Amino acid sequence: MKRNNTESETIGRIKKPNRSKGEMFARVIDIYGNDRMRVYCEDGKHRIGRIRGKIKKRVWIRKGDLVLVNPWDWETESKDKLGKAEISWRYKKNEIAWLIRNGKLPKRLDLDNIPV
């Protein structure tokens, strides 16, 4: 039986940030290596994001990708050091389009508005 590959991807469920656990949207700004990258979070702060071990080998994250982060609350932030967060999900293009269409994505995370 042959499959028809011309069907478009359908969107089932899209993972949204669980605000009670502190999760939020973020954009990848820079890649440092060793599973660490600089992210710009929706609260306006830059953080060092670490890729969670569960998705480390399964998902490739590139510069400019929209990700879901969980900031570390036990890390004390100082003026000289960036805070840290754990990257737990990467959104695909069709998921990002759905989030924008339905008004779930903050305007602050538009790639043109991110301060470097």
Give an overview of the whole structure.
There is one protein chain. The chain has a 5-stranded mixed beta barrel. The chain has one domain: Nucleic acid-binding proteins (OB fold (Dihydrolipoamide Acetyltransferase, E2P)). The mean pLDDT is 85. By secondary structure, it is mainly beta. Helices cover 8% and strands 31% of the residues. The chain is globular and about 45 Å long.
Helices and strands in order:
Blueprint: E1 24-33, E2 36-41, E3 46-51, E4 66-71, E5 83-90, H1 93-101
Parallel strand pairs: 3-5
Antiparallel strand pairs: 1-2, 1-4, 2-3, 4-5
Helix tally?
1
- Please tell me the overall pLDDT: 85
CATH topology: OB fold (Dihydrolipoamide Acetyltransferase, E2P)
**Total number of strands:** 5
Number of domains: 1
The CATH homologous superfamily is named Nucleic acid-binding proteins
Give a short account of the largest sheet.
5 strands, mixed, barrel
| Widest sheet: strand ordering | 1-2-3-5-4
The CATH architecture: Beta Barrel
Radius of gyration from CA coordinates: 16 Å
Strand percentage: 25-35%
Instruction: Pick out the low-confidence regions.
Output: none
Q: Class by helix and strand content?
A: mainly beta
Task: Look at the structure and give the CATH class.
Answer: Mainly Beta
Report the principal-axis shape. globular
